[in-house]
């Protein structure tokens, strides 16, 4: 609370009363604090790849260029880090567009069975390369929903891409499409490393990671799930996660079939 008080003076400058104004600034403070934290996070995330690119370029210029082995290895790192940088900037722009409401979602009636199948098909090869089986399970009956097609496909891609990263060789990823009354639900179930209970509530926050080192090696930006949540909420939908360490995780999102 913020407090302002002004005395009310009567004759002879005597104080006869006071005006007291109380302002509840706690919400504003929280927003301010979140913004400050976000800027600090972004700066840190940007600085890491930039430092790597600069460091390796410098070492090359200082003589490592002469060594063909080192040259190749360092240029590979520079390429990968600049690639991460550009994905990070893209993800940040995407997030801020959705958040500010500037991203106009093109809602259209869409057959979800097909959307799920074609999106899964795009990632089957990548899953296979990682020694994983990826399968879509959709009902025979067509399920129609009013969605922004490309965005929902993006949501599914982010969830499956995570399942690929956090599941070891020989594992499975199963994607289910289901409907219940006026809602449609998509579930991505993996047999991966799982997530500790205490991390679950914060998973959809920007830059929140369970295992920083592992997430970094995977090349992730830490924004995948934040984007998922934003897109789903722009559809008046909800996200959910259930997980057991060592057994696997199930991420799901549920959307109303009709937008109001
Ligand atoms: P990242 O780029 O780090 O993957 P995300 O926002 O996509 O960022 O995910 C946030 C964190 O959630 C990840 O760093 C990881 O710790 C955890 N996570 C996401 N999906 C899974 C999954 N399928 N299995 C285990 N952990 C996961």
TrEMBL record:
<protein>
    <recommendedName>
        <fullName>histidine kinase</fullName>
    </recommendedName>
</protein>
<feature type="domain" description="Histidine kinase">
    <location>
        <begin position="41"/>
        <end position="259"/>
    </location>
</feature>
């Amino acid at each position: 609370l913020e407090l302002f008080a002004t005395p009310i003076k009567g004759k002879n400058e005597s104080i006869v009363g006071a005006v007291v104004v109380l302002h509840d600034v706690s919400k504003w403070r929280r927003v301010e604090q979140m913004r400050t934290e976000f800027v600090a996070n972004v700066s840190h995330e940007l600085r890491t790849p930039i430092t790597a690119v600069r460091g390796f370029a410098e070492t090359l210029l200082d003589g490592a260029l002469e060594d063909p082995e080192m040259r190749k290895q360092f240029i590979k790192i520079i390429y990968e880090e600049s690639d991460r940088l550009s994905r990070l900037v893209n993800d940040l722009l995407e997030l801020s567009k959705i958040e500010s409401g500037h991203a106009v979602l093109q809602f259209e009636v869409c057959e979800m069975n097909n959307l799920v199948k074609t999106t899964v098909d795009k990632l089957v090869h990548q899953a296979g390369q990682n020694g994983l089986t990826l399968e879509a399970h959709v009902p025979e009956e067509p399920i129609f929903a009013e969605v922004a097609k490309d965005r929902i496909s993006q949501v599914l891609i982010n969830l499956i891409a995570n399942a690929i990263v956090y599941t070891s060789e020989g594992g499975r990823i199963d994607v289910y499409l289901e409907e219940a009354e006026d809602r449609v639900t998509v579930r991505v179930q993996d047999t991966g490393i799982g997530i500790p209970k205490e991390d679950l509530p914060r998973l959809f926050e920007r830059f929140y990671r369970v295992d920083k080192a592992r997430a970094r090696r995977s090349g992730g930006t830490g924004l995948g799930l934040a984007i998922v949540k934003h897109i789903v909420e722009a559809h008046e939908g909800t996200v959910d996660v259930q997980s057991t360490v060592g057994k696997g995780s199930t991420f799901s999102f549920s959307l109303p079939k009709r937008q109001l």
